[in-house]
Amino acid sequence: MGATDLPGAALGPYGEAQVRFAVAAWPMRAAEELRSALIFRALSRAARDCDMPPPWPARFASAMRDEVRHARLCVTVGTRLRAPPPRYDPIPVRARLDALPDSLTRTAALLLIEVAMGETISMYLFRACRRATVEPLTRAALGVVVGDEVRHQRLGWTGFTVLWPMLGARLQAAMQCEAARGLAACEQQNARPAMRWLQERRPFHPDYAALGVLHPEARVEAFYSAVERLVLPRLTRVGIDGPLAWKNRYRGAPR
Fold this sequence. Notes:
The protein is mostly helical.
């Protein structure tokens, strides 16, 4: 579904304050999808440089184009809903890449954290959000993103399985630590803000969910379900101790 295929917005049933709150999510989504595109671009280049066999670099480049399309879709939806324009900040991506100087380490870390783990969690969150959404424009756009996230997380896990034998014992051990750090970062980004909302007993208007904002309780549940049901078992299957990485996420894996 392209931008021209999206249904029209139907905001009549919702209050002005609720609409204003909900539409503010679209610029943030656009910025996050562009960040994902930059990650996939860097991953494609690093995979080529470390001689990861075809067709993997091309597959990562294709996923980059998906993420660019998502960013444009989010901008389109935000524009239709009169959201402010997105603000893109490339500094976090640059810092992440600067910490991964050689191509093999960069490929392994990005593929594991941002793609396999990150896209799995993103898939769960977007899917839960879409299920609760009623407004047709928002629901259709979220559905487009969910469909691609399913493919992207699968790409991450299968790609990392192919890469694993190329890493060697030292880098395989480093990925255990990387997984622990990645789980902590994912929790801080995806679950902690929702938990603070609940701890502060802030009200959540039902219209927010109908307009595409995931209820904090549902967000927390979706995050931990993704980790428990998919991320940790899949880490273990590819050669990383998933439960140990989760246990050590705030103290680092043992050296």
